[in-house]
Amino acid sequence: MNRDTEKFIAADKKFVWHPFTQMKQWLDNEPLVIESGEGFYLIDTDGKRYIDGVSSLWCNVHGHRVKKIDDAVKAQLDQISHSTLLGLAQTKSIELAEKLVKVTPKNLAKVFYSDSGATSVEVALKIAYQYYRNKGQKRDKFIALGHSYHGDTIGSVSVGGIELFHSIFRPMLFETYFVPSPFPYRFDGTSEECKQFTLNKIEELLKKEGQNICGLIAEPLVQGAAGMIVHPHGFLKAVRELTKKYNVLLIADEVATGFGRTGKMFACENENVEPDIMCTAKGITGGYLPLAATLATQEIFDAFLGNPEDFKTFYHGHTYTGNALACAAAVASLELFEENKIIESLPAKIELIKDYLKKISAFDYIGDVRQYGMMAGIEIVKDKKTKKSFEYEKLIGAKLCAAMRPKGVMMRPLSDVIVLMPAVAMDMDTLNTLLEVVFDTLKNDLPIYSS
């Protein structure tokens, strides 16, 4: 460890409060300090390189220091970095909105910008709520899935279902109807029975309370923060049919699943679903800058039109809405998807991950492996037969990810679920190296930590 690294660590411990981190443990250990990146690697202050196995928290798409995106941001710097969208338009936000409408489900027509996944969800919830108010209906409830995660602002936490994250804030939140997540591994029955059980619960609610419900919000196909819960095939399509049947809006939270993560540009495409509202963020700029976009149908947009005295205006906005630098990065990222045929390249990568997961699933203490596209979770359990988990305080997942660092791989678990979320543009050789390290660690280090 060089002197600069020591100085950075000391300053970090003195001044920085890290997210989702027990700071007592952080202060007792020596963290890695990332200084730069290159391609699909992170580089620390000592010059050591690590494959970025979780895409810098699921947002990096094309790698680090990508020339096209770098050049787009630099060019925008020579014009303007930011101007407000309140009362003004801006060239890059217009260009990006047009591109987003072209690549998202066909029914989506309008783009409302914000700056993070959580704010994109806040926007969606408020649009859904006011949409019905503008139509003369007083609906004020939402349906969400258990174990769901939609961000950490008050509205998004209100529709979040991860008790570890959200329970302490319950007194601050608005009431939401939760239905069980369709999680086959933790369900006593078949995958089809699991799917139908949740669908029945949703329909029961819609029959009873449909007239009071603004919308149903769900992470399509994969609930990421819950431990990569992969929904049974056809669940999303059936949810869409139920929301149409009972005239309730469907909000698809594609913050984590969007931009190629599931093998399609957006997860909804896998089941030919067109939501009424879609939330996007994370990969929208290729992982370069904070930006989010909430897309809605023309019908929803039109419900907000009127004279000033009608008070149908959507009174919501953010200072950096439609930030020019972020929009420039996002435009370049979308162009790279097309130029490099990213979506077309995914089947081979998905198959490679599948092959490794199949081998890993045979190990002792591996309870379940779950994959949809480039998103995967490896659940570690104390007892493979009973599916009993390890005691929380053993921190098996965290120890295993730490064991991967000396081998040149940077990973972050969700409790005892090892998350695989490589950048969708990662080349096959780098992906294979990443998977080999994960395989080796689970084969050789997991038995040590589990004893």
Could you please describe the fold and organization of this structure?
This protein has about 450 residues and is of the alpha/beta class. It has 2 domains: about 30-60 and about 345-450, Aspartate Aminotransferase, domain 1, CATH 3.90.1150.10; about 70-340, 3-Layer(aba) Sandwich (Aspartate Aminotransferase, domain 2). It has 16 helices and 17 strands. It has helices at about 5-15, 25-30, 55-60, 65-75, 90-105, 115-135, 155-160, 165, 190-210, 235-245, 300, 325-340, 340-360, 395-405, 430-445, 445-450, and strands at about 35-40, 40-45, 50, 110-115, 140-145, 175-180, 215-220, 220-225, 230, 250-255, 275-280, 290-295, 365-370, 375-380, 410, 415, 415-420. A hairpin with a 2-residue loop joins strand 13 (about 365-370) and strand 14. Helix 4 (about 65-75) packs antiparallel against helix 12 (about 325-340), helix 5 (about 90-105) packs parallel to helix 12 and helix 13 (about 340-360) packs parallel to helix 15. It is globular and about 65 Å long.
Summary keywords:
globular, 17 strands, Aspartate Aminotransferase, domain 1, alpha/beta, single chain, 7-stranded mixed sheet, 2 domains, 451 residues, Aspartate Aminotransferase, domain 2
- Indicate the percent of residues in helices: 25-40%
Strand order of the largest sheet: 4-12-11-10-7-5-6
The CATH superfamily of the largest domain is Type I PLP-dependent aspartate aminotransferase-like (Major domain)
What radius of gyration results from the CA coordinates?
A: 22 Å
Gist of the model:
This protein has 16 helices and 17 strands. The chain has helices at 3-15, 23-28, 55-58, 67-77, 91-103, 117-134, 154-158, 163-166, 191-209, 235-245, 298-302, 324-339, 342-360, 396-404, 428-444, 446-450; strands at residues 34-38, 41-44, 49-52, 108-114, 141-145, 177-179, 213-218, 222-223, 229-230, 249-253, 277-280, 292-297, 366-372, 375-380, 409-410, 413-414, 417-420.
